Amino acid sequence: MIRTVQQLALRLLPQVIALAIVLAMIAAVFPGFFSFSFQNGRLYGSIIDILNRGAPVALLAIGMTVVIATKGIDLSVGAVMAICGAVAAASATHGNPLVVTLALALATGIVCGIWNGFLVAVLDIQPIIATLVLMVAGRGIAQLVTEGAILTFNDEGLIFIGGGAFGGLPMPVVIWIVFGIAITALVRRTALGMLIEAIGINRRASTLSGIQTPVLLIAAYTLSGLCAAIAGVIAAADIRGADANNAGLWLELDAILAVVVGGTSLLGGRFSIAASLLGAMIIQAINTGILLSGFPPEFNLIIKAVIIVVILVVQSPKIRTISSFFARPARQNGGER
Amino acid sequence: MKPKYLPLAATIAIFILAYAVCALQYPAMLSTRVVGNLLTDNAFLGIAAVGMTFVILSGGIDLSIGSVIAFTGVFLAVVLEHTSIHPLAAFVLVLAITTVFGMIMGAIIHYLEMPPFIVTLAGMFLARGMAFVLSIDSIPIKHPFYATMKSFYYKLPGGGRITLIGGLMLLVFIAGMVLAHRTRFGTNVYALGGGTQTSRLMGVPVARTTILIYALSGFLAGLSGIVFSLYTSAGYSLAAVGVELDAIAAVVIGGTLLTGGAGFVGGTLVGLLIQGLIQTYITFDGSLSSWWTKILIGLLLFVFILMQKLILYLSRKKAG
Prior knowledge:
The complex is a heterodimer. By secondary structure, chain A is mostly helical. Chain A has helices at residues 2-29, 46-53, 55-69, 77-93, 98-122, 127-146, 156-163, 171-188, 192-201, 203-208, 213-239, 251-261, 273-292, 299-315, 317-334, and strands at residues 36-39, 42-45, 151-152, 165-166, 169-170, 241-242. Chain A has a two-stranded antiparallel sheet. Chain A has a two-stranded antiparallel sheet with strand order 3-6. By secondary structure, chain B is mainly alpha-helical. Chain B has a single domain (3-319), classed as ABC transporter involved in vitamin B12 uptake, BtuC, CATH 1.10.3470. Chain B has helices spanning 6-25, 32-41, 43-57, 65-82, 87-111, 116-134, 144-151, 164-182, 184-194, 196-202, 206-232, 243-253, 265-285, 291-319; strands at 139-140, 153-155, 161-163, 234-235. Chain B is globular. The two termini of chain B are 19 Å apart. Chain A: Keywords: Cell membrane, Membrane, Transmembrane, Transmembrane helix.
């Protein structure tokens, strides 16, 4: 048990250090950054704001991590967010009770996920292309649901999900943390996580060794769809309306970036949901930091591009070969493993 | 018929059928004006799609082209507003920038052995970010040279016009076909799409070809950006969002295999025209909403992917 905790700490160390550096840099420019206040039964402060604003990307990153671990990718999550937000808004404006609204929105996300999973697992289409179909068509479908308008609603329960507070924390923060812990427990307390990694490393070998590859692949994309649905409901509840054009726009790229920053390889295999969540927070901290420090927000994209390039270089198989060549004598001496 | 011609034949059949249906409902669709506009309105997308065809033929993908188009437009607008250099010199300059940009992405993909998807994603962020840094406003281009270029057109019988940019797109497609099917570089691209390892063993210069492919895509994205700035007479950093998706859709609907190695540059033109036709039909109809375009394109994309799978399955079965 202590060993696993140690391993986890070691795995998360680069992300924690990166997050600490980003936060320290912001705090250096903006001294009041770490201050908290407690008003109206909830916490306020820049840190809470980062946790809150980062909720959609964090949720998407949970599903995306599992999909990427299977050597896949889900480009449709932004569009699925828009569809599910639209469904939730449409249901709320029809006066359905909150439970029905949520069930409808989440079911829509699950259906979208099953569709993607079906294309990838059963029809054996490359994940980029399979999910591209829904990425292209998804916003059109969302427009169809909202009938081209921005659907606004006044359902108190639904608004609470976006703007309410539970135990002093904003509701979106509670949702992504609880959901992240639940999914981590699900994949790590069972063999599921290992089986998913096996598929990502070698799908054919996993199938031959008796793993139900299609079922697990569909489950991975379904989870991603479900995460997108929750993120979509939060995004819609946050602005009290469903905007089919802009809800979740380009968030699929942020989610992929969060997973990559979290150190999960795009080539599939070993994954860490906690690291991806930290990655999502790093991205959000950079976003917030740029806004607070008065830099023009236009620099955001350039910084993201630089981050991707740096991580690419670090993750690159070629660089690994070179660095392991230099590290080999040290490893032998240290007797690691 | 050879199975490799099947997607292309299906694409052409769908296009003719769709055009016939449109023409039956709205006879005006047959006029050369509609045809001319179809070419002009899709010129920038078509030029970018030629580059995308080469990238996809080689088994890669280029997500950066929409951002590069926007960057080119903003760059031209800023340069023409603040300096007195001639637009033609600015064109050469921006084409050099985008070509080098593509080359760098190709080099990263090859030498760092990273998936093209994520490398060009970084390129997408970078190009869009540079456009934002240059200017966040939409800048009009008022240079008299632009007006002169817009006044060039070839008048078709029936009042239709093949504008300079529409004609340029057709030229790019012809050049692309020659490059893909009649040169050693084209053969290398097809070989690369068949498998990197195999083509390396066959003696294909993998590094040079990969870098050249992305350089070509960058160059054509730059050219597409120039055409886009001629088309809109403005530079705006939020323009051309998602053009890469439309380009990929045109390539796939045009019958190019997404795994690389098989397809035709000419098919991309038909794929592009099908997309344009859907848009024109929706404009003619007037009561349909524009979001049906997206749904229909998504649907077509799905049908063509399924067809490709079927063809692969059949050809594998034949091979034993």
